[in-house]
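Ticket 4471: requesting a sanity check on a complex prediction with 5-amino-5-deoxy-1-O-phosphono-D-mannitol. Repro inputs:
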Amino acid sequence: EKGGYDWFMQKEIAEQPQAVADTLLGRVNADGKLVLDEMRLSEEELRAITKIIVVACGTAYHAGLIAKYAIEHWTRIPVEVELAGEFRYRDPILTRDTLVIAISQSGETMDTLMAIRHAREQHSRVLAICNTNGSTIPRESDAVVYTHGGPEIGVASTKAFLTQLTACYLVGLYLAQVRGVKFNDEVAEVLTQLSDSPAAIAETLNRMDPVRKLARSMVGARTVLFLGRHVGYPMALEGALKLKELAYIHAEGFAAGELKHGPIALIEQDLPVVVVVPSPKRPLLHDKIVSNIQEVRARGAKTIVIAEDGDEAVAPYADFLFHVPELPILLQPLVATIPLQVFAAELADALGYDVDQPRNLAKSVTVE
Ligand code: M6R
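Returned structure tokens:
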């Protein structure tokens, strides 16, 4: 059943090119227009949306944080992202013209379910992004976009995350198309880039041996920090979550811009700091991150850097440098997350932990 892999998580990481390809399958009609079958909200209803709130937990929340960058850029609709467990307790502003997007692999997460029930009581529309056919969250939603990731057994979410991102991109592009905003050409272009992404994901997987080796050399680490900017920030949060839940190592993700506002005080000799670097084609962002890497390294940090192919500007400041294939920045999480997943899983295994069943955790959290 593990198909020759040591753990389900390893298998699920390897299945990511296919999972993303399956999630993209059949979404474009003969006229090149994006179609979402399970979209039961009319175009008129979608045109009326004035605000989007994404609710989710854990890894799905990180997918939501990345979705915000993409959906706002493509549609110009303001997007908030909220931890589902916080949502209904703070009297959120919800109207008929608010679209709540609930992201959940299992479709049974109680915090997320309670959040959408609250949203519907306030007459907002709810769209679910879910991996489990017929589960409770999609049943209680106005519309569903299913991710076609197949069953995910490992408690730590991997292929579900990449397919959630894919579905979020599709929803963002669909909204842009329906609303006919100025980005229609961009919709077609991004769809092409998305359809190329499974090959880039597969290529990334082929490059993971050095990441495994590094992880296995780090069994003594007590704390690992993760830094990123733009979509690299949610990726940093995701990398830290993976390490906490699998290897039981204290890990924190930071927005790189926050370093000087506190976290830099944590940097000491040999502290591992993982940094996700945006494309050099975005020089403003890229150069800022490069100086952040210099800053932490000057204070003794051991820098583990994930950068795009061809980006050598970071090399002088990287103790370890891993390149991932080039994708437009909004899609970069589809490849740059993979070394973070592999790093956490390998380190956990090297420490002798059960990668598929981390302590204290359940695959589906059905209590609030
Ligand atoms: O089934 P869901 O996507 O709603 O689950 C949400 C979280 O419980 C889940 O992503 C959790 O954080 C994972 N263990 C992370 O790897």
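Notes from triage: The mean pLDDT is 95. Leaving this open until the requester confirms.
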